Amino acid sequence: MKVSALSLFRGIITLLFIVILSCGIGLGIYLSMPLNAQKIIFIPKGSSKSIIAYLRNNGYDVGKLDVYILHFLGKIQSGWIEIPNEYIESKIDVTPQDSTNIESIEPFNIIISRGHFLHALISAKAAMKSVTLIPGETSYFFLREVANAFNIDIDSLQKEYDKLSPLSDGIILANTYNLPLHADAHFIISYLIDTSMAKHEALSREYLGDFDKEKWFKILSKAAIIQKEAANVSEMPIVASVIENRIAKNMPLQMDGSLNYGKFSHTKITPDRIKNDTSEFNTYKHAGVPKTPSCAVSTDAIKAAIFPATTNYLYFMRNKSTGLHDFSETITQHEKLVKAARDIQRNAQKATKDSKTIESKKPDSKQDSKKEDSKETPKDSKKNTESKK
């Protein structure tokens, strides 16, 4: 039986329609399938293929078909994205993982359709806010700054920090961090610690050839003292040499900066404080470097701790004229510098006092005017003066 050309054409069109309809229905079902995700996601720069591979390596149920769909939808954004609330089908209760492992994966906390997820990758840019951890600052003050910046309860932020940080201070590197505005306490602390730990490992491998956490944390403790004591970057290796030289001679470090730990970061160090502080950071009472860093450090301080200058210096003191430090090899040299500084200060105080005395002895123009108006004779003036004695 012969089939007409028209019937054949109609058959092909019908078949194509069925195939297209089936594909459309299948694609619709595929895009409506639920997918576990994070509300805030970091997307690296790269092609759709490399980004999908990155997401898959981080636990996302995505694959090759998603690459083709994204090619059709548009270009994926890099950086932080935040899934819009209207895309979220439900939330997941999660127990945060241990973020001290730099390879840990942030837990999924929402369920979203695949279609909405892929669309968010090209459209849902997160609002960002930056926060700066200054070299030498402590976690006590930095966490309060973060809490204020992101409107987060300080207790919840401190709780996450205590739970996730391997050290009470010094683990978060001094830097400026850009974070999603609506990030929660766990996300912020996880990101700060994971990012810093990745940098710690990179620096350790660059400077030492490997990464031993315990060894590195000791370096951070030394770097914290250097950070607090040095007046500038160029002084850091010299201060580091003083630490090494004093340890080699079994001398206590006796460095005030280490006492500016925690909530005492901005507190002036006094003899009374040195006498009564019993913490490990009191290097007048305890030998060697404290086991824990006292503050956040810069990469310059870390480098100085690893590569100290070669000197014979054992002492240093701040020169108030220059703002820098004067270093000395012997106690005799040091005491001469101290005496000279005290003499300069004493002379300056005396000069100030003399200046005030001279100023107070200057005649008052109003009194002079009154005297002129009274037209006293020298004799009358003498009598008046004698009567005031």
Automatic annotation (TrEMBL):
Entry-linked InterPro entries: MLTG-like
Keyword terms: Cell membrane, Cell wall biogenesis/degradation, Lyase, Membrane, Transmembrane, Transmembrane helix
Localization annotation: Cell membrane
Catalysed reactions listed for this entry: a peptidoglycan chain = a peptidoglycan chain with N-acetyl-1,6-anhydromuramyl-[peptide] at the reducing end + a peptidoglycan chain with N-acetylglucosamine at the non-reducing end
PROSITE patterns named among the record's database cross-references: PROKAR_LIPOPROTEIN
Pfam families associated with the record: YceG (PF02618)
Family (UniProt): Belongs to the transglycosylase MltG family.
Name the UniProt record assigns to this protein: Endolytic murein transglycosylase
Lineage of source species: Bacteria, Pseudomonadati, Campylobacterota, Epsilonproteobacteria, Campylobacterales
